[in-house]
């Protein structure tokens, strides 16, 4: 009797130990991001990043848009790991020159400034991938957009992938179906995709990205809008880089005008207008055009979801000393 009890007690103890071990192991394997990640190791990290981001946007308002886009173009390519920030080097082929980024993605130097400010207060602690995520939130907030609590603890890649970048970053010529499927592979729903596209309420696009659309004379674009945009976007290649605001009404503030534009067939890019063009996402666009508060809260949730795409955590990846190169 006594022996039997002892055996079963010790087996309970060893099972409990096994369960604890498994919990520890599984949390190590899929370490979660957490908003308090730097609370002990770098309590001033968020404040330091915010100061750098705010001064950059105060110098140039468009930078808010550029920084939000940079986080997006990071997360869609092998996860939110700052791979987009790596320059060409003997061991790296940079993502900066793929068609979706070349002469287009910008703000790299602002992330470098934020990184060096953070390195001054806590060297070797805060990842470039986290700085991108925080910068996107600070940028949105600064230009009147939603704010949210950023989850932290991402680490930086030691690799970049131009081939994944060219495959996984959307193109302005993509159909609604391709866009839905691409965002779907990243775990983002149609609603997430429409909300995130609402970042085109700020920022600029180059003539080369909307020329075909404004000269198409199609029924999917407002004729007056097309004619206005043609003035600064000639048919010749030397106008390729001429800029136009993605939101014609309020290009410098983060609001829901982007969706109102789509209802009037005044989306600048084809990939904007396909969101409201008789397809499955029309109802979401209408809803966001009517209810800014719903857009705001969906945008914040979708940014958090996007920031969660395949992060490197735990002992994967590194903390880069400078964002443009591996240590
Ligand atoms: C749905 C698929 C998308 C496509 C095809 C697309 C494409 C583009 C293109 C072609 C430009 C103009 C680039 C240039 O002319 O240099 C642009 C700008 C921009 N995109 Fe997107 N985009 C998409 C989704 C998103 C998402 C999800 C975000 C953010 C979460 C975003 C944020 C921005 C911002 C803020 C700008 C302005 C950047 C600046 O002024 O520097 N876009 N996008
Ligand atoms: C990127 O742009 C530069 C300058 O406009 C151009 O010379 C280069 O060929 C482009 N790179 C790629 C890979 O297309
Ligand atoms: C569309 O209309 C414009 C202005 O009326 C004209 O210059 C252009 O050639 C037309 N484009 C097409 C593709 O028909």
From TrEMBL:
Enzyme category, top tier: oxidoreductase
The protein's name in its UniProt record: Peroxidase
GO cellular component, one term: extracellular region
Binding-site positions, heme b: 200
Signal peptide (from-to): 1-31
Recorded catalytic activity of this chain's protein: 2 a phenolic donor + H2O2 = 2 a phenolic radical donor + 2 H2O
Cell compartment(s), UniProt: Secreted
